[in-house]
Amino acid sequence: MMIKIEDLEVWYDSIPVLRDVSLEINRGDFILIIGPNGSGKTTLLKTIANLVKPKKGAVYIDGRELNRYSPRSLSKILSYIDPHLSREMPTTVLELLMTARYPREDLFKIKVDKEFINKINEVAKILHIEHLLERRLDQVSSGELQRIIIARALLQDPEIFLVDEPTAFLDLKYRFEIMDLLKKINREYMKTMIVTTHDLILAGLYGEKIILLYKGMIRAAGDVEKVLKKDLVKEVYEIDVEEIYVNNRKILIPINMK
Amino acid sequence: MAEKIYYKGVKRFVFSLMILMILSITLFISSLFVGSSSINLYKIVHMLSNIFLNKNSLYNDPMMNILDLRISRGIAAYFTGFALGLAGLLIQTVTRNPLADPYILGLSTSSLAFVSLSILLFPDIMIFRWNLVLIAFLGALTGFFITIGLSKLAGGSSVAIVLSGIAVGSFFGGVSHLLLYLVQARYNIYIMYLLTGTAQTVLWRELPYLIYPSIAGVIISLLIYKMLNAYLYGDIYSRQLGFPPGVTRTISLVITSILTAVTISIVGIIGFIGLASPHITRFLVGNDHRFTIVLSPLVGGVLTLFSDISVRIISYAYGAELPLGVITMMIGSPFLAFLIIKRLRE
What we know:
The structure holds 2 protein chains of 2 kinds. By secondary structure, chain A is an alpha/beta fold.
């Protein structure tokens, strides 16, 4: 599944959010999108997921424009993994997880596959949420919720994962765990992974291809050495950073305001 | 682990379904005995067998007429609750608000206001019931959109929706009251009962208006149960699973409004059944629509039939005919109070 983005321009009402975005993403890529608040990270993911319509330009998957896919066939190919689920209505974690297979199931099918339930067990074990399955979704912590959301995405099993801020509310330990897991899914199953993050340290540790968005445009794209540069980050994030090397990887440590 | 929880859910569903079926039948049979004149068991069995064997020998028996009325009244009460149980479930899902209910959100009174106005202007419409239902349907939709519009201005929280609903509901309630009073004065027909609905006046030939839409509503809702489940977690979530949320919203809203409309145009306003039924159902089996769509109407039916039997007992004891809507309101309001306290505490 190759994603090609051509000359994308997205507006919210009368405000431009993305401009001149062109990209090519290959199958099995692990892409990190970084950038300050309001730089268009989430909008880019949502546009790839066809949740936001571009004003200009287009997104192609395997050479076919997004609009030419039916909503259902698109939901088998990609999943936008939203950190903000509505939890107004009382439901359990298991009830949420059971919706993950809907794109692959017949709409009217009432019975639940045994095989799918086993899969839920398997994924729940990997993400340490087995003890939460019966819990109400509005009674789990934000860290637990994040793991539940990733578990759900794994169960949906798309080709392309569009993961929005997976580490935002997590303890340090789980930040690494989630990033490790996303990388593992990427490597072992050849799933394309596009992840947004605020965390420059994680970007240094896990980045392969990094895209730096700034004011709705791609300010830089490439490997860690190319994107995580001191002056670039200073300019875009308006903070001072220090470069250090750990295990031969460049990491930027935020110091203070510029 | 997951299979244990899942099969526990299925078991609870089957168990609840059986209990509700038994309760429905028991209540219905006992409803035949309750009323101002007593009929004994032997007589009822005798007359029922006559009905089924189609013998007309007893047809002139006044008891037969009484039984006839009680059967239609029981069925009317049950299916009013059935319709409202489903309408309440769907409107709670559509607004993602556990405090929603056709009465609380103002659909019932706006629907009644439309009905009253049309009767006042075209009294003949009482004969063309489907037209009346159609007008009631438009009224319910109008009430819903005014309430939602108002609540958006007020910030869109779940409590804002309830408060807007109360404002809209009270307004249309007043309008209905006025119009029905005028209808009554002008055409000299007794119609004020619609304000606090009653199943007493429902005739056999009116029952299909309650039964068919209710059954159709359950079937259509079951066909979209996956869309409803996905819808619970937000519009974006639903869309990324390939279900356009607007479609789910439209279908559910149409079903809710039709079901509200039929109850309004046949029995009048029965409040709070639509609020209580989904909550009791979720308490029994959780929030999976594959289960709740089947159970919530049954819970509504049982609650309403039980209320109607209570009404008959009280009426019999005090010699005055009480409306059904009064009892459901008395049971339902503390329930709403409890839910609001729980919600605001969180």
